[in-house]
Write a structure and sequence with these properties.
The chain has 249 residues and is of the alpha+beta class. The protein contains three helices and ten strands. It has a domain of 171 residues: Beta Barrel (Sortase, Chain: A). The mean pLDDT is 88.
């Protein structure tokens, strides 16, 4: 009789624990979805307020109201446009590579985070400027980077280019020359190099990793932009990576 009661008690405890785990997981998912929705709406509102795009003689000119952005967040260092404006977001930078993983552009706590520059970068004139962002399932932030890995993505010429608008409202255009998935590492996010040979080795390495041969010449005189995001869900250790070089039309 005692054994029976003990078994029944254990079963009840286990059942209660399962309910608690389920409720905790459900609340966590709901809070994440709430953060995702808030971040998406706030970024869209911000885009509407600060982005001015005009067409002049078939040339599209984008200007950003950086005064407005600075008034919200003085960590602002630029703006990124890519993949038919699916990525159309401010870029920030702070003293580490962790704060903006879970803070929105206005610095409020938000699991969706913000696109940010590697804290070691000084400006877009560094030899390798690294930008991080979450691969959100609703395609916001760097979520649409998954499009790059579709076989038909580069059939559209404009998809080869990433635009960065710096805080002087100068548009810097970058042409993609490499993309791949790799285990999380420090090498591809190197931001400074010992000498020209070191940089040449870096260029050669990241070009050889590419899933596609773009037949684009990249030299030590070039400036590289690197986009990095998670590949997969949960605590994945894999990263989707894109490298592009600055060009002048």
């Amino acid at each position: 009789m005692k054994k029976r009661r003990l078994k029944l008690r254990v079963k009840r405890i286990l059942f209660l624990l399962l309910i608690m785990v389920f409720l905790f997981s459900t609340i966590k998912v709901l809070l994440f979805l709430k953060d995702l929705n808030v971040n998406k709406n706030d970024n869209k509102k911000l885009e509407d307020e600060v982005v001015d795009t005009t067409v002049n003689n078939e040339e599209t000119i984008t200007r950003i109201d950086f005064d407005k952005l600075f008034s919200i967040n003085n960590d602002t260092v630029g703006w990124i446009k890519f993949n038919e404006d699916k990525i159309n977001n401010p870029i920030v930078k702070t003293k580490d590579n962790s704060f903006y993983l879970n803070h929105a552009f206005d610095k409020s706590k938000n699991q969706a985070g913000t696109i940010f520059m590697d804290y070691r970068n000084l400006s877009f004139d560094d030899k390798n400027v690294v930008l991080f962002g979450h691969a959100m399932l609703d395609n916001t932030m760097f979520g649409s980077i998954s499009d790059v890995f579709d076989k038909d993505f580069f059939e559209k010429k404009d998809n080869n280019y990433i635009e960065i608008i710096n805080t002087n409202n100068e548009t810097l255009t970058y042409q993609i020359f490499s993309y791949y998935v790799i285990e999380k590492e420090e090498y591809y996010i190197t931001t400074s190099f010992n000498d020209e040979n070191d940089f040449a080795t870096f260029i050669d390495t990241i070009k050889k990793r590419s899933y596609k041969d773009f037949n684009i010449d990249v030299t030590t005189t070039d400036y590289i932009l690197t986009l990095s995001t998670c590949s997969g869900v949960g605590n994945t250790t894999k990263r989707k990576v894109i490298h592009a070089k600055r060009i002048i039309f």
